[in-house]
Design a protein that fits this description.
single chain; 12 helices
Length: 223
């Protein structure tokens, strides 16, 4: 009987672990649809490239609107619907849906659609702390340089974010978004906050860590 109880406990624990992993994976796909591979790798998953770009291109070529929300968004992206607060709300609803049509949205990002960019920036004016829209702006930047907008909106979000834990994540996301452009976001953030403030202490720590990482990388190259 004791053996049966032990087995039952192990099964319950495994199921709990699986539920936690599944919930975390679903959260990553919803919050980071464009860089989910990196986030999944941080959880310990290994990524295997099975001609993903070819698959994505095929999906995008066949993608079309599948519901009224998506038809509305296509109208916005094609310039047939005037941008409004409602446009942003529908975009976020569709973006975060468990059945979101990512291939359809993705092809407008890849074509650097000006109306999509306008929708993202309009949304950030409404909600400067939107993680989804900041992530989408960074993704858009991969296809058309929007460094100035990234600096503007990430800096604005960092100034407005009062939760220190959320601020730390925001600062790291800012750093990662613009690092390929040779821009060190931590230096820019350091100029925004006074010495002795909690935000400045966090930024100073990140500067120290990033500089140490750069030194270590340089040593590896030289030696």
């Amino acid at each position: 009987m004791a053996r049966d109880d032990k087995y039952r406990d192990d099964v319950d624990t495994d199921n709990l672990d699986n539920d936690i992993i599944r919930d975390e994976v679903e959260r990553i796909f919803k919050k980071h649809p464009h860089d989910y591979i990196t986030k999944l790798e941080e959880l310990g998953f290994e990524y295997y490239d099975d001609d993903e770009e070819d698959i994505e291109e095929q999906e995008e070529a066949l993608a079309g609107p599948k519901n009224p929300n998506q038809e509305y968004l296509v109208g916005c992206f094609d310039g047939n619907v005037v941008l409004s607060d409602r446009s942003v709300a529908i975009f976020l609803e569709e973006r975060n849906s468990s059945t979101s049509n990512y291939p359809l949205l993705r092809k407008y990002f890849k074509s650097a659609n000006a109306n999509l960019l306008a929708m993202i920036t309009h949304g950030l004016e409404l909600d400067p702390l939107s993680e989804e829209l900041l992530s989408d702006l960074a993704y858009f930047h991969e296809f058309q340089n929007q460094l100035n907008l990234l600096i503007k909106y990430y800096s604005q979000a960092c100034e407005k974010q009062e939760n220190i834990g959320a601020f730390s994540e925001l600062a790291k996301n800012f750093y990662n978004a613009v690092l390929p452009d040779g821009f060190n976001a931590y230096y820019a953030l350091r100029d925004l906050f006074d010495n002795g403030t909690d935000k400045r202490k966090i930024v100073d720590f990140f500067v120290e860590v990033s500089e140490q990482a750069e030194d270590d990388a340089m040593k590896k190259l030289l030696f």
